[in-house]
Amino acid sequence: MPRTIDSLKGYYKEHEKELLEEFFTFLEFQSISSESDSKQEVLNCAEWLAAYLKKIGFDTQLWPTAGYPVIFASYLKAGPDKPTLLIYNHYDVQPVDPIELWESPPFEPAIRGGQIYARGAQDNKGQCFYTIQALKALLKISGTLPVNVKLCIEGEEECGSRSLSSILKTKFKELQADYLAIVDLGIPSLDKPSITLGLRGIITMDIELSGAKSDMHSGSNGGLLYNPNHALVELLAKMRDRSGKITIPGFYDDVVSLEEGEKEQVSWDFKPEEYKAMFGVLPTGGEKDYSHLERNWVRPTLEINGLTGGYSGAGFKTVIPSKASAKISCRLVPNQSPDKIARLVKEYLEKNVPEGITVKVNIHHGGKAIRSNPDSKVVQAFARAYEEVFHKPCQFIFEGASIPIVTELAETSRSEVVLLGLGLADDNIHAPNEHFGLDRMEKGFLIIGKALEEL
Amino acid sequence: MPRTIDSLKGYYKEHEKELLEEFFTFLEFQSISSESDSKQEVLNCAEWLAAYLKKIGFDTQLWPTAGYPVIFASYLKAGPDKPTLLIYNHYDVQPVDPIELWESPPFEPAIRGGQIYARGAQDNKGQCFYTIQALKALLKISGTLPVNVKLCIEGEEECGSRSLSSILKTKFKELQADYLAIVDLGIPSLDKPSITLGLRGIITMDIELSGAKSDMHSGSNGGLLYNPNHALVELLAKMRDRSGKITIPGFYDDVVSLEEGEKEQVSWDFKPEEYKAMFGVLPTGGEKDYSHLERNWVRPTLEINGLTGGYSGAGFKTVIPSKASAKISCRLVPNQSPDKIARLVKEYLEKNVPEGITVKVNIHHGGKAIRSNPDSKVVQAFARAYEEVFHKPCQFIFEGASIPIVTELAETSRSEVVLLGLGLADDNIHAPNEHFGLDRMEKGFLIIGKALEEL
């Protein structure tokens, strides 16, 4: 009997064409969860994916929510003596602006240089699809799966996972599992198989400053009016000091640092020059008192994700705008509370806003940071799968990004978490020209298939 | 023989309907000089206005330029012993964004509550049109004009007057005059006839900061990348201190303050509460060491007219943008040089931009401040006209806004300047719902007609 990995390789080779055709169909849905214009497309995407899972042999349900449905699919025929693995993915994607920078349309997948270009090609439709394909292959090859598998695929990851979060309590029983695999992460490079030990939490908010009741002439009123644009840049600039430290009172109060023993198990290797080669600029941001990867992995941040105020079209308009706005996000580490951080930012703004300007803060749904144990059975099983597929030892890393729902899902399912995936830093997720490698489609497929056997 | 003012009043009453119909035609041209999409409309507007002037008896030319044509029209039959008055207006208008805040479409004039609503209703089509109507009426009533009149009506005032500026030297002879009336100003309120003694200069520029070569994920890169949005708010915030003083080195070096004697002739009356009642907010901006009207009239400013960076659409996008931009303008006082101030701002930005961010500054055409002499013949003649029309003494004020071309035109024409008009602070020029009063159409018409007799 051939080794699982060889059977999987053979299957992949034989079915690659069909697999990519089906993947392209998945990518063509404009499932942008944060834009109401895309509503029908998000729903169509969920329907299509649920039907697909049913067809390959999963008991599939669309859990209705106040927002987009959660796809819950299970295959529990491995038997009660086998462990249960809950796998998390999402079928929604980020918006596509600035659309003019895409080299091919974001929802018309195209292959160039061994890469599939489309919104969601990696995050998370690509990683979701190789996972499903591995399950489909194992079922075709062996007629069953080595462990019980539950899939939880939501449609609001890119806008805060509010709906999945709100139904967790009522779906408590269905979600019980021994292990939870979050297949939405990455590796530092193609020669560095890695499992992620932690994700940062996140809290996002919109800030709106208002001055006069309408836009005003900057000559006739300049020197009189307090310009909301000025109030905004002053408030935002004062949130950080010259060393990159965030100055909002209490911001760092609850931060738990890594202990020395934990620190040693992790690969902190980082080459600023390689970062520059990839992205065109040296990584000069963040807190100057910490190393690059500490800043990105285990320290909280505050970023301005959007700025808008006054006239930004062609030509010039000498206006003092009535309003100026910003979108900001904070990445959080254990044990920072998203709600508390949002409150601190809001209080800072309300306390410091100048006379003549009013501030409104709209806080979105957030998520706590998560950490997993490198010695747990599930992390070790996936590490072995990475090693077999890459023919290299698997290292441990962290990830600066967030999957807000992970901590809640781990708590609800009472499972041990493993964070994995095959994203690369230059896949342009959340940016124009998102892409994912054909090679990684296959490797992901093999890792999932192999890890199930190792559990 | 009836007094001039009575004949004018009679004429106005008789012709008001026709006058408004023609004015509406003038307002319907979308003559937005700063938006290239409006090019044909700007040209059509110039053609229409030139034809109109020809029809009422002016020798009319369209001076071609690299941009939009300048309308030059003259009536020199008053004779060589009479003085020549050059009158300046402009036929171009500001952009209309945010268009959704207009209660009626900006290029479909509508009368509500005695006000004409349209882009340009005041600035400057309204003031241009009552001027022309006064000339037309005098010609109809008397068959001639009491002085020689030249009209210079340009099409690029709202974007820096570059074309008129560039042809001044070649049109030196045609533009010679004894007096220059700039009919593009205002009065503090309907019961305060006023002549403006000074305008601030202006320089505008676009600032663009660049970081990574494309937009980046704010989780995976937060703490690594220097966010251009942060660099922008830091650079802009540091341009002013807590007292509102501009901190750019050398910014105030050339400022000439008013002498005590000059100061005494001017009405500095200002009620912050009235400002708040009009615009919804107290005037808390500008330099705290100066009175309200000093800040607005005789002190320079730096305003952020536009801010843009990252995602500002619906929902949220956790992005660190590749670029962040601002549009800024400085209002200048005698003897500040627009070019020098632009250079100081550029040098400040280049010196202070953080590592990992590059800055590009695009400087537009500027204009120097202007001051006129309250004791000059032309100022006195117009002051008497205001007094007769308003039945009140005419006071002297300044204006915080700029008409960049005025200083150059005064120098070229070698004339004494008078700055006048009937704008009100709440006319919403450069903003949605611009409007001008029917009562002021008539008053402006009477003032122009009467002043010509006084010269």
Annotated CATH homologous superfamily of the largest domain in chain A: Zn peptidases
**Number of extended strands of chain A:** 18
Oligomer: homodimer
Q: What's the rounded overall pLDDT mean of chain A?
A: 95
* Rg from Cα of chain A: 23 Å
Q: What percentage of the residues of chain A does DSSP assign to strands (E)?
A: 15-25%
Question: Biggest interface between protein chains, with counts per chain?
Answer: A-B, 100 and 100 residues
- Taking pLDDT < 50 over at least 5 consecutive residues as the criterion, the unreliable ranges of chain A are none
The termini of chain A sit apart by 20 Å
If you had to describe this structure to a student in words, what would you say it looks like?
- The structure is a homodimer of 455-residue chains.
- By secondary structure, chain A is an alpha+beta fold.
- In chain A, the strands form 5 sheets. Chain A has a 6-stranded mixed β-sheet, sandwiched between helices. Chain A has a 4-stranded antiparallel β-sheet with strand order 11-13-9-14, with helices on one face. In chain A, strands 4-5-18 form a 3-stranded antiparallel β-sheet.
- Chain A has 12 helices and 18 strands.
- Chain A folds into 2 domains: 283 residues, Zn peptidases (Aminopeptidase); 135 residues, Alpha-Beta Plaits (2-Layer Sandwich), CATH 3.30.70.
- In chain A, 33% of the residues lie in helices and 21% in strands.
- The radius of gyration of chain A is 23 Å and the shape is globular.
- Chains A and B meet through strand 9, strand 10, helix 5, helix 8 and strand 11 of A and strand 9, strand 10, helix 5, helix 8 and strand 11 of B.
- Strand 11 of chain A pairs antiparallel with strand 11 of chain B, so a sheet runs across the interface.
